[in-house]
Amino acid sequence: MLLLPQTNQLRALHTVIRDKNASGRDFEVYSRRIIRLLLEAGLDLLPFEKCEVTTPVGETYHGLAFTPRVSGVSVVRAGESMEAELRDMVPGISIGKILIQRDKRTKQPELFYKHLPSDIGAGHVLLMEPMLATGGSALAALDVLREAGVPDGNVVLINFLASPAGLERVGLAAPDVKIVTSSIEDGMNENAFMVPGIGDFGDRFFGTVPASTS
């Protein structure tokens, strides 16, 4: 598990978006700044290949090339908040979607929809799931990727907030999956919301509820 460096800048960004009175525009803008940091850290965990180029002054630079086989998969709906940043950073990247919702009666995650790149099993995957509370949705999404032929070791879980319980559960069930997060929360309340928390990330990012009720 990789926790982003807890810099003053990151703490200031979190302060803005955790404020229940933050405007929808502020929530989106400052969240996207953190998302960019998470994706940069996640991409750095992928394999690189040696690559040489000739510089404008005729010298050889011994560098690295990004892995050509990488896909993004967002867990709908909150995970879609990360798609635009990823597409800006990796032009032409293929992005799949997985829709998982918790059954109101059993409280267990249920798969409703999946659409993945046809060659997803041949490369690495950035799995975009901003909220890791109980870990149930993330594990259900990992099961979908496994069925598509993606080894756990080829998955980087891009996460915004994580609870200690969620990290432990995913770590035990999928120890080879790499996790990148910007914050480890204190825990969860009786309604399985993380505390101090951020509210419903998807609703606040996409503006489907007033920020003051988050």
TrEMBL record:
TM stretches of this protein: none
Keyword Transferase: yes
Cofactor(s) recorded in Swiss-Prot or TrEMBL: Mg(2+)
Gene3D superfamilies per the UniProt record, alphabetical: 3.40.50.2020
Pathway: Pyrimidine metabolism; UMP biosynthesis via salvage pathway; UMP from uracil: step 1/1
Domain Phosphoribosyltransferase: 5-208
EC main group: transferase
Single GO term (MF): uracil phosphoribosyltransferase activity
Keywords: Allosteric enzyme, Glycosyltransferase, GTP-binding, Nucleotide-binding, Transferase
E.C. designation(s): 2.4.2.9
Family from the record: Belongs to the UPRTase family.
UniProt-recorded name of the protein: uracil phosphoribosyltransferase
Organism of provenance: Streptomyces microflavus
